[in-house]
Amino acid sequence: MRIRNEFRVALLGLILFLSGCGAYNFSGADVGEAKTFQVNFFQNYADQTPGSIIVPSLDRDFTLSLQDMINNLTSLSLTGNNGDLIYEGEIVEYKVIPMTATSDQRTAQNRLTMSVNVRFFNTKKPDNDFERRFSFFYDFDAAASLTSVQSAAHEEIFERLTQDIFNASLGNW
């Protein structure tokens, strides 16, 4: 009987401790007083960077991926305007370059690189605003076509880019 009471007291203490942690959650995000977030459409301007190409729907897919990341890791509500936290920017690079060569001077591996320029505005804490470029890559066998690896490449690149953006904007450890 005494063990049950001690367990209940310990459980109650843990619940009170966790509820007293304020605006932090298990993802490590510090949303402060913010209640809403907004992710404006990331236009694809990659073709303005030499060697880059335009991929249809890349802008939409990346925008949705960033929205999903923030939505899944915070208790913030997504809104179309007047968000407490605002993310906007553009895709500025999307290109494939050869990375390694074989002994007979043929390309063995290619690298797909994607870069986005992000502007983050925190209407509750303007000191946290920033503008930064984020970039990540995906290496693949040169014998494979870009279209054959694109789905896996986008999944990996989007996951890393959105995580980096999330950490820069809300990961105030």
Quick structural gist:
The chain has 173 residues and is of the alpha/beta class. Helix content is 34%, strand content 31%. It has three helices and six strands; from the N terminus they run H-E-E-H-E-E-E-E-H.
Would you write up a description of this structure?
There is one protein chain. The longest helix has 25 residues, at 146-170. The protein has one domain (2-170): Double Stranded RNA Binding Domain (2-Layer Sandwich). Strands 1, 2, 3, 4, 5 and 6 form a 6-stranded mixed beta sheet that branches. Helix 2 (58-73) packs across helix 3. By secondary structure, the protein is α/β, with parallel strands linked by helices. A hairpin with a 7-residue loop joins strand 5 and strand 6 (130-141). Helices cover 34% and strands 31% of the residues. The model is unreliable at 18-26 (pLDDT under 50). The chain is globular and about 70 Å long. It contains 3 helices and 6 strands; from the N terminus they run αββαββββα. One of its GO terms (cellular component) is outer membrane. One of its GO terms (biological process) is Gram-negative-bacterium-type cell outer membrane assembly. InterPro entries: LPS_assembly_LptE (IPR007485). This is LptE family protein. Pfam families: LptE.
